Amino acid sequence: MKKSLLIITVLIINGCTELQQVINQLPQGGISEVEIASGLREALNFGIEKQVSKLTQTDGFFKNQMVKILLPQELQKVDKTLRDIGLGKLADEGLKVLNRAAEDAVKEATPIFVNAVKGITFADAKNILLGTDNAATNYLENKTTTALYAKFNPVIKNSLDKVGATQVWSNIINKYNSIPLTNNVNPDLTDYVTNEALDGVFTMIAVEEKEIRNKVSSRTTDLLRKVFALQD
């Protein structure tokens, strides 16, 4: 009997030791769901400040292969036909002005994204923190895209006019429609560029989120270091 009690005691002591080792490996100091949510917002804001700001520069979209806006499906045949008949420069200009409109619009609309991040409420901040490399960005996108589209769309329309895209594409489409044996096209460029620009913004925010998640050196504030240490 004494021998059995001794064995049980040893097992309990060993179990407690192993449990204490596990506890010692967990981040200390305690952190609330509110702090985690604040850390996620800060990471998203860094994405806007450091990555989305790059999109507002000349060629921010056009020369960034991650987000460059290509022609919509219905205009790819227009592009090919124009190049086939020697109007390649016109086709190139048409592609460029779509990206210029997005660059201009993101510059105007950046406060929209900042406000969206400030207002977002994370339903389960801890699970998002412990999720995939772009979990916070995906959450932001799912929660805000509809509202952002409504605000972003008129900005895109103005930008298309501002950079001359509307006139360029009117000329392109009229040229194409005048070619014999072609079917007339009239795509909604504002809708297309709006969706592409939004996709580009979320892509760049995700780039920064991934950096913060995977590189300790990218956690440049106490809050980021404290929060993202939980997912290391």
From TrEMBL:
Pfam families in the record: DUF4197
Biological source species: Abyssalbus ytuae
Domain of life: Bacteria
Name used for this protein in its record: DUF4197 domain-containing protein
InterPro entries recorded: DUF4197
